[in-house]
Amino acid sequence: MSTIDVRVEKKVVEADGIVSLELRAVGEAVLPAFAAGAHIDVHLPNGLVRQYSLCNAPGSGGSYVIAVLREPNSRGGSSAIHDAVAVGDVLQISSPKNHFHLLSAPRSILIGGGIGVTPLVSMSEALHASGADFEVHYCARSESRTAFRNQLRASPFSGKVRFYFDDQGGSIEVNELLAAPADETHIYVCGPAGFIEFVTSSAKRLGWLDSNIHFEYFAAPTTTDEQGSVPFEIEIASTGVRLTVPEDCSAADVLLENGIEIPVSCSQGVCGTCVTRVASGMPDHRDIYLTEEEKAQNDQFMPCCSRALSRVLVLDL
Ligand code: FES
């Protein structure tokens, strides 16, 4: 996959445990335009690749801004950004990708939990620029852990932003907030898995249409890792070669060990980078990227995390 070289222009402490990076193309190159909700893959100095939402206004001056929370159980991604990336460093990134599209609608409700606010910051800028009606509800543990709070408070749309700080008893009243479902209103949710599930299940219970509820996970819910795993076989359709995927190994790893490289990024079934066509067999879908309809068709799967319910899965490779 082609990458873009960018220089770290600024590194700012946005809140306790959260830094932002402003990235600009190296030399004369121009960064591709992006739409609100987009993210980029960032290739880190330790070889890991991580996805981060763009949180600046689309079209704002040829730079990308990302914000990263230092995860206490970091697998090396957030700690690399915090500890090993400095102003002036050159990083490789992907072009923006967007699985969290902001639709054109008369009214939007943006609900963010913690660092999940990042795509919503970009969305709020885009909605303000378009003149659409919107409101932002931003939940965080405390004011000191609330990234972009000063930026949002100083913004021309500050009156549309409401903060909820756990340590001040400011819990969001989702039942009140979403009490009146409306076809012309769309809800966008981003944050920890439990937060997303709470908001989206509440919205559905209150009568909101699935098509009006949009969300993006930052990481796969932990339940995907907790399911038992048994060995299965993958067959390469073009050669007939069969490979065994042991219970403690992913199909993507087995393919790589056997010289078949599938692009992998998040390794958690979140980003969709590794999607692979299935010619026959029944996948055991463990990702959160494919929709329920796509999963039901059983003609593609995510080898970074998904497995097989049938003994053999024939891959269209
Ligand atoms: S690498 Fe992200 S879904 Fe497989």
Automatic annotation (TrEMBL):
It holds the Pfam family Fer2. The keyword RNA-binding does not apply. GO terms for molecular function: 2 iron, 2 sulfur cluster binding; metal ion binding; oxidoreductase activity. Keywords: 2Fe-2S, Flavoprotein, Iron, Iron-sulfur, Metal-binding, Oxidoreductase. It comes from Paraburkholderia elongata. Residues 232-317 form the 2Fe-2S ferredoxin-type domain. This is 2Fe-2S iron-sulfur cluster binding domain-containing protein. Residues 1-103 form the FAD-binding FR-type domain. It comes from the Bacteria. The keyword Iron applies.
